[in-house]
Amino acid sequence: MRNRSVSFWLFVTPTLLALALVVFVPFIYGFVFSFTDWNGLSANEFIGLANYVELFQDKEFLNSIWFTIKFAVASIVLVNVIGLGLALLVTQRMRSSNILRTVFFMPNLIGGLILGFIWQFIFVSAFDAVGSALGIEALQGWLSTTETGFWGLVILNVWQYAGYIMIIYIAYLESVPEELLEAAEIDGANSIQRFWNVKFPLVAPAFTISLFLTLSNAFKLYDQNLALTNGGPFNSTQMVAMEIYNTAFSESDMAYAQAKAVIFFILVAAVALTQVYYNKKREVDL
Amino acid sequence: MMGDKKFLSKVFIAMVLAAVLVVAGCSSSDNASGDSDSGDGVTVDIFQFKVEFKEQFEELVAKYQEENPDVTINVQTVGGGNDYAASIKSQMSSGDEPDIFNVGGPTDIEEYRDYLSDLSDTAAAEAALEGTLNSVTEGDQILGLPYSQEGYGLIYNKAILEQAGINPDELTTFEALEEAVATLDSQKEDLGLEAVFALPAKELWVMGNHLANAYIAPEFENDITAAYEAETINFEYGDQMKRMLDLQSSYSVQPVLSLDYSQQVEQLFAQGKVAIIQQGNWIYPTLEQMDPEFAENNIGMIPMPVEGLEGHLPVGVPQYWVVNKNSSEEVQQAAKDFLDWMYTSDAGKEMVLNDFKFIPAYEGYDTAQISDPLSQVVYSYSEEGKTIGWTFMATPVGWNEDVLGVNMQRYLNGDIEWQEVLDTAKQEWEKSRQ
C-alpha cells in the first residue's frame, strides 16, 4: 500500500476527480453561499451568520428536525428488528427460503416515488374500504392526520428497507462458524441461548453497517415523503430534506436553505459517526 | 507482464485525458449555446413549463421551422410548479441560459428582471387582450407575452343538479348556494352521491391560491399590481372566505385533508359521486379522456359567490413567455418573430385554438371555435370583463401555499381558530414586504 505507483494514481484520479467535481466543490460552494443572501441567481451581500441565527428560531425547520428524528428512531428500530427477524427466518433450513429471500428483497427494487404512490393508494383507499366494511375506525382517514402520516411513512420505509437489511444479516449469520454452534449445543444451550450468546455477538458488525445505512437513509428520506404525504397535513409530516428543498425552491430563499443544509449535514454526520464509533467498540473479533 | 502493465497505464492516461477533454468540452459549449451560430441561421432555445401541451407545441415548432428553414428551435419542457422554478434557476446559474422561457407574474418578474428584454414592439403584445399584460408591464416596457387565459369556479354536474331541481344560474349568492347544497345533501342517496363537494384540502394550491384569491383580489380592486405593492393585507373579505371554505369542507367527502386533486376530479367528480367541485377549465382534457360524452354535455361552471362582486369569475394568465436579454440581438429578434408567428399568424392561431385548446389571450381569434364548455364559460366572462384578477401571482413568494394554505389545513383540522389563520397570514405578508 505504501508503494503508491503511477498506476495507483491513475486508477484513483478519475474517481477522485469526479467526486471532487460533484461533491466536494459544490459542498464548499454551498458552505460559502450560506453566509450570503444568495437567491440562486446572484449573491449581493455577505451577511455573516444571519441565516444561522434565523434558522434556530424557525419553527417550521425545528419541527421538521424533530419529526425526522422521531421518524429515524422508529424506522431504525423496526427496520433492524424486522430485517434480522426475516434473516433468521430464511436461514432456517426451509425449502422455500430462496423464494422468500427474493420476495422480501423485492420492495427494495421499486423506486421510492412509485412506492409512495402505491402506498398512498393503500392507505387512503384500501385501508378506508377495509375499515368501513369491517367497521374499524382506526383504518379510516389515514394520512389526513399527523399521526397516521407518521406511521404511514414508517410502514412504507420499513417495508422497503427490511429486505435490504435482511441481506446484510444473512451474510453475517451464514458466516457464523458451525463448530461454535455445535459446541454450544453440546454444552446444552437451547436455541434462544445459542442465538443470544453465540450468534448475536458475532453478528455485531452487521449491526454497525445496518444501523449506519438505515440511519443515514432515514435522515435523508425525500422521495417517499414527497409521494406519500408531501408534508401534509399542514407541513406536519415534512422531513428535513423536504423542508430544505421547499425553502430553496418554493420560497426561493437559497442561501437560507443552504444554511439549513449545513446544519443538517453537521447533525447527520455527528449522529452517524458517534454511532459507528460506539458500535465498533462493541464488535467481537473472532 | 511488464508490457501489459505499461499498456494498461497508457490506456488509463488516455482515459484521463479523455475525461479532461469531456469536462473542458462541456464548459466551453456553455458559452456557445446561448449565442447564435452565425453563418447558417439562428438557434433559439426554449425552456417551457406546460407539460400538457408539449407534443402539440413541438408540432407547432416543427411547422415554424419548415416555413423558416434558417431558424432552429430547441424545445425543452420541464413540468409544473416547483420543478420548473428549480430547473430554470439552475439553468440560469450554470450559464446555459435559454432564449425564451416562462415567468408566472410580478414575483417572478422581479427575480428575473435582469434577464428580461422589452417585447413592446411585437405584434403579439399589440394584440394581447386588455388586462392580460397588466402584471408584466413596467413603464412603457412590456416584459412578457401571455400564454393563454384560464379561469376557475364551481364546476357542476348538470344532470345531478337538474335531477334535484336546481338551476345553477341562480346560485349567485351565498344564501342561494348554501340552500342548494343543503337540498343536494338531503337527496344524497337518491342522486347516488357520496357528498355534495369534494374539497381536496391536501392540495395547498386549491385552497391557498384559488379559493383564497376570490376573496383577496376584491380587496385590491382586482389589480395585480396593487396586490404586488401592498404592504399589508386586511382580509376585508375574510369572513366570506371562511364561509366558502366551511361550506365546501363540511359538505365534502371526508377526510378532506388527505383528499387530492386526482381523487377530486377523476375518482369523485367524473364518476358522478360528487355534484360540485371547485376547479378550473384545465380539468377538461382529463374529463374528456375519461368520458367524452360526460365532458362535452354534462358539465358547467359558475363563479364562487363574492358579496359585492356577484357573477365575476376569477380569470388570469397562468404563465408568460419572456425573451432573454442576454441572448444576442439576432437571437432575440428570432425569438420575438417566433412568438409573433405563434399568436398572430393564421397558421399559429389555428393551432393555438384547436391543438393547444387555449383560451386565447389575444384579439383576432375565431372564438366560436372554442370547443369545450368550461373554456367557453371562461371566455365569455372575460369578454364581458366580469373577472376577478389572479392575485396569487403577486403575493409574497410562497405566501399563498405555505402560509395561508397550510394554516387553512390547521383550521380544518380544528387546531386553530379562523382568526388565527388570518392573523398569521397578515403577519407573514407584512414581514416579507418590509
From TrEMBL, chain A:
Its main location: membrane. Keywords: Cell membrane, Membrane, Transmembrane, Transmembrane helix, Transport. The chain crosses the membrane at residues 7-32, 65-91, 103-130, 150-172, 200-219, 255-278. One of its GO terms (cellular component) is plasma membrane. It is a multi-pass membrane protein. It is found in: Cell membrane. It comes from the Bacteria. The keyword Repeat does not apply. InterPro entries: ABC_transporter_permease (IPR051393), MetI-like (IPR000515), MetI-like_sf (IPR035906). Pfam families: BPD_transp_1. GO terms for biological process: transmembrane transport. Residues 65-275 form the ABC transmembrane type-1 domain. Belongs to the binding-protein-dependent transport system permease family. This is Sugar ABC transporter permease. It comes from Oceanobacillus piezotolerans. The lineage of its organism: Bacteria, Bacillati, Bacillota, Bacilli, Bacillales.
From TrEMBL, chain B:
Gene3D superfamilies: Periplasmic binding protein-like II. Residues 1-32 form the signal peptide. It comes from the Bacteria. Pfam families: SBP_bac_1 (PF01547). Keywords: Cell membrane, Lipoprotein, Membrane, Palmitate, Signal. This is Carbohydrate ABC transporter substrate-binding protein. It comes from Oceanobacillus piezotolerans.
